[in-house]
């Protein structure tokens, strides 16, 4: 799967896209592959305040429970409710329809520190 160039990545395998003060957050194809079959996604409530580095949600698979971290400060504006009915749908389109939540950003400085695609892939290569 080709990773998009127009989003940012974290070494902890989140991806983010910032548009008009709203950050869309998801997890990378690498994280999905490492987790295996996803059975449950525990999303926060709309209106939840998040701080950079705080757990934004959890993803449960047959192998483990993974935490997804907020890369910015802000308030949850929207969650991907379709994942409640079909958590495995996350794997089908991780960089599109498999987004997790949208955050109305109050401090975007964390986004600026995220990696571009080449930087993220370099961290994956170094970990192998």
Give a structural overview.
The protein is of the alpha+beta class and 128 residues long. It has one domain (8-127): OB fold (Dihydrolipoamide Acetyltransferase, E2P), CATH 2.40.50. The protein has helices at 29-35, 82-85, 89-92, 109-112, 117-127; strands at residues 8-9, 14-19, 22-27, 38-42, 49-50, 55-61, 65-69, 73-79, 101-107. A six-stranded antiparallel sheet has the order 1-2-3-9-8-5. It has a three-stranded antiparallel sheet with strand order 4-6-7, with no helix packed on it. Strand 2 (14-19) and strand 3 (22-27) form a beta hairpin.
**Which architecture per CATH?**
Beta Barrel
Summarize the biggest pleated sheet: 6 strands, antiparallel
The radius of gyration over CA amounts to 13 Å
| Class computed from helices, strands and strand pairing | alpha+beta
* Low-pLDDT residue spans: none
Q: Whole-Å distance between the termini? A: 18 Å
Count of helical stretches: 5
Question: How many beta-strand segments?
Answer: 9
Structural features:
three-stranded antiparallel beta sheet; globular; alpha+beta; 5 helices; 23% helix; 128 residues; OB fold (Dihydrolipoamide Acetyltransferase, E2P); 37% strand; six-stranded antiparallel beta sheet
How would you concisely characterize the structure shown here?
With about 130 residues, the chain is an alpha+beta fold. The chain is built from 5 helices and 9 strands, in the order E-E-E-H-E-E-E-E-E-H-H-E-H-H.
Topology:
Blueprint: E1 8-9, E2 14-19, E3 22-27, H1 29-35, E4 38-42, E5 49-50, E6 55-61, E7 65-69, E8 73-79, H2 82-85, H3 89-92, E9 101-107, H4 109-112, H5 117-127
Antiparallel strand pairs: 1-2, 2-3, 3-9, 4-6, 5-8, 6-7, 8-9
């Amino acid at each position: 799967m080709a990773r998009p160039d127009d989003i940012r990545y974290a070494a902890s395998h989140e991806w983010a896209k910032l548009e008009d003060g709203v950050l869309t957050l998801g997890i990378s194809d690498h994280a999905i592959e490492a987790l295996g079959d996803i059975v449950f996604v525990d999303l926060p409530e709309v209106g939840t305040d998040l701080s950079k580095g705080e757990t934004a949600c959890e993803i449960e698979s047959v192998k483990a429970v993974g935490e997804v971290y907020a890369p910015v400060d802000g308030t949850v504006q929207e969650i991907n409710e379709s994942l409640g009915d079909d958590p495995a749908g996350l794997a089908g389109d991780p960089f599109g329809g498999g987004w997790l939540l949208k955050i109305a950003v109050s401090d975007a400085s964390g986004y600026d520190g995220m990696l571009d695609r080449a930087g993220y892939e370099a961290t994956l290569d170094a970990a192998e």
